[in-house]
Task: structure prediction
Amino acid sequence: MDMDSNPFHSASMSCPPPRSVRAWTILLALALVATRRSTTPPTIETGEIGGAKFPFARPALWNRNILLLAHGHRAEDRPLVADLFPEQLSRKALLDEGWIIAKTSFRRNGIIIVDAIADLDALRANIAERLGPPNRARRSSPRFCHAPDAST
Result:
């Protein structure tokens, strides 16, 4: 039986697609993956929980991960400030990856470790209530994503 008379054989099965077609297919797939990252700036939401002010930056495509930033010690007489700086390179990189970045002023300043942890937990819960539960939530010390702190 020759190839032309075989009903299970077709010309398209006899040879693989040209290299240029395969290359374009791979490039298209890579372009689709690359466009998954949004070029839309993050949405900044603000509020207050129990006297603690907060902002958080939410990317257009949230990957269900949250980074909660904890500022360092601030003297008791300083104002409550929750400065986020989402344009800072390390924070922008995480936002580009789909992370929410959040920060709290804490409800008061001074040596307040127990209150600070409670305020971070309340912020995580607030975000989960607004947007749904995260897959992962991480707390960060002042050494990570450091930015100038105008309030200290």
